[in-house]
């Protein structure tokens, strides 16, 4: 329990209304009955300075849509919520860039970008998904083939370090600079190195035409998906096990190819015509939203692995995962395979079997690796969901020590239990 003196300092730092005591709320085994919700960046900085001084460990929370991503945390004392921070979503229509506060819902950014004649580069995992949380997770969505991965869209960031120091990296313009790009370091670090408060994003051109198509495919599905991912206008290409789409047993449902197209109308028309010459195609406007929900929404009884490999090895990887009993979604343009293992009951041995199956399916010589993106909390006990390689851990520990020496930000959630 947080000491009374520490609570008093926190109220003095950010105001009494920013320190909220409530019934215990939990995630991945951490149950917390205190939320710190500063309403300005200065208050956030002051709050973090107090927490570091008293070594008060925190779970950082944005919109709360993907709190299950990451390792089980070490013991914590409070939630640190960015929900009360001042909103901001300014789009420069001439330059195609946006200045967005971390607490801004991604759907608000999408609307503002469209109104200015552009499109948002980030995909929302739900109506409450915020910019800060999405960048902290850093996972590419299904449309990353056309949008690019999240870290590539970030031009600059404002970050408050655990010490309370407000820092900036990058800028609002695209230019060549020397030195390490710190923005890429923060994106995908799960909030363990600092709290994101604002970002400059590169927007994408608003397409003249958009179309999402679906086709049942047979044994040539992998090759057709690989070819479709190389076609102009392809924004998302996924080969999905038919049982996910048709809700039928695996041996009764053919695989389904989902192709999302965007760009100039003649380009989209041309690629659609090519796809229709290869398969029996039908429109499916909701397919990518459905696919994103399948990949990102946690299941109470399933393990969701995201494996990365070179595109030429994805076919054999998919086959090995199938042999292990996994359902698979293949993204050939991204070099990724999502593997889903059902857990019929609470059994740690089944989790071990799934991890072993994924490791056997990967080809270490190609640099392939996997992350357990979603799992029941009990399935993470004693495991590192990032399966980090020992060679990378010393560097990760050094970065954590440099940016958060007291270890107060999302302790234990990142690779290697950092």
List the helices and strands and how they pair.
Elements: H1 4-14, E1 19-27, E2 30-36, H2 41-53, E3 58-61, E4 78-81, E5 89-92, E6 97-101, H3 106-115, E7 118-119, H4 131-137, H5 144-147, H6 150-153, E8 154-160, E9 166-170, H7 182-186, E10 195-202, E11 204-205, E12 209-217, H8 221-229, E13 234-240, H9 242-246, E14 255-263, H10 265-278, E15 281-283, H11 287-296, E16 302-308, H12 314-323, E17 327-331, E18 336-342, H13 348-361, E19 369-374, H14 393-403
Parallel strand pairs: 2-4, 3-4
Antiparallel strand pairs: 1-2, 5-6, 6-10, 7-11, 8-9, 8-10, 12-14, 12-15, 13-14, 13-17, 16-18, 16-19, 17-18
Keywords:
alpha+beta; Uridine Diphospho-n-acetylenolpyruvylglucosamine Reductase, domain 2; Uridine Diphospho-n-acetylenolpyruvylglucosamine Reductase, domain 3; Vanillyl-alcohol Oxidase, Chain A, domain 3; 3 domains; five-stranded antiparallel β-sheet; 19 strands; globular
Describe this structure in words.
With 418 residues, the chain is α+β, with helices and mostly antiparallel strands. The chain folds into 3 domains: 4-84, 2-Layer Sandwich (Uridine Diphospho-n-acetylenolpyruvylglucosamine Reductase, domain 2), CATH 3.30.43.10; 89-205, Uridine Diphospho-n-acetylenolpyruvylglucosamine Reductase, domain 3; 209-380, 3-Layer(aba) Sandwich (Vanillyl-alcohol Oxidase, Chain A, domain 3). It is 30% helix and 26% strand. It has 14 helices and 19 strands. It has helices spanning 4-14, 41-53, 106-115, 131-137, 144-147, 150-153, 182-186, 221-229, 242-246, 265-278, 287-296, 314-323, 348-361, 393-403, and strands at 19-27, 30-36, 58-61, 78-81, 89-92, 97-101, 118-119, 154-160, 166-170, 195-202, 204-205, 209-217, 234-240, 255-263, 281-283, 302-308, 327-331, 336-342, 369-374. A hairpin with a 5-residue loop joins β8 (154-160) and β9 (166-170). α1 (4-14) runs antiparallel to α2 (41-53) and α12 packs antiparallel against α13 (348-361). The chain is globular and about 70 Å long. The two termini are 23 Å apart.
């Amino acid at each position: 329990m947080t000491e009374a003196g520490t609570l008093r300092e926190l109220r003095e730092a950010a105001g009494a209304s920013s320190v909220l005591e409530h019934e215990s709320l939990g995630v991945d085994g951490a149950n917390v009955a205190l939320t710190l919700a500063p309403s300005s960046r200065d208050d956030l900085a002051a709050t973090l300075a107090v927490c570091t001084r008293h070594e008060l460990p925190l779970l950082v929370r944005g919109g709360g849509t993907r709190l299950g991503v990451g390792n089980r945390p070490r013991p914590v004392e409070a939630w640190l919520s960015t929900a009360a921070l001042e909103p901001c979503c300014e789009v420069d229509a001439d330059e195609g860039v946006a200045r967005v506060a971390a607490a801004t819902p991604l759907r608000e950014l999408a609307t503002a970008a469209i109104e200015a004649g552009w499109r948002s580069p980030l995909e929302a995992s739900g109506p409450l998904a915020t910019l800060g949380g999405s960048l902290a997770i850093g996972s590419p969505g299904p449309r990353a083939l056309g949008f690019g991965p999240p870290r590539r869209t970030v031009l600059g960031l404002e970050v408050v370090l655990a010490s309370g120091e407000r820092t900036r990296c990058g800028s609002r313009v695209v230019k060549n600079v020397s030195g390490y790009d710190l923005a890429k370091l923060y994106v995908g670090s799960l909030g363990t190195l600092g709290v994101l408060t604002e970002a400059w994003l590169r927007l994408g051109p608003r397409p003249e035409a958009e179309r999402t198509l679906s086709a049942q495919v047979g044994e040539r599905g992998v090759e057709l998906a690989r070819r479709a991912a190389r076609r102009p206008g392809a924004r998302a290409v996924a080969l999905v096990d038919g049982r996910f789409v048709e809700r039928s047993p695996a041996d009764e449902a053919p695989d389904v190819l989902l192709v999302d197209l965007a760009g100039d109308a003649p380009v989209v028309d041309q690629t659609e015509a090519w796809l229709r010459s290869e398969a029996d195609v039908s429109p499916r406007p909701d397919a990518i939203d459905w696919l994103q929900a399948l990949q990102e929404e946690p299941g109470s009884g399933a393990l969701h692995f995201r494996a990365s490999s070179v595109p030429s090895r994805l076919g054999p990887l998919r086959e090995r995962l199938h042999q292990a009993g996994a359902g698979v979604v293949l993204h050939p343009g991204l070099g990724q395979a999502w593997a889903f293992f059902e857990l019929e009951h609470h059994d740690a041995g089944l989790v071990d079997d799934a991890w072993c199956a994924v490791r056997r399916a990967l080809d270490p010589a190609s640099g392939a690796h996997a992350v357990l993106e979603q799992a029941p909390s009990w399935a993470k006990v004693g495991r590192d969901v990032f399966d980090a390689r020992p060679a990378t851990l010393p560097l990760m520990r050094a970065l954590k020590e440099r940016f958060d020496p007291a270890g107060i930000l999302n302790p234990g959630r990142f690779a290697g239990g950092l």
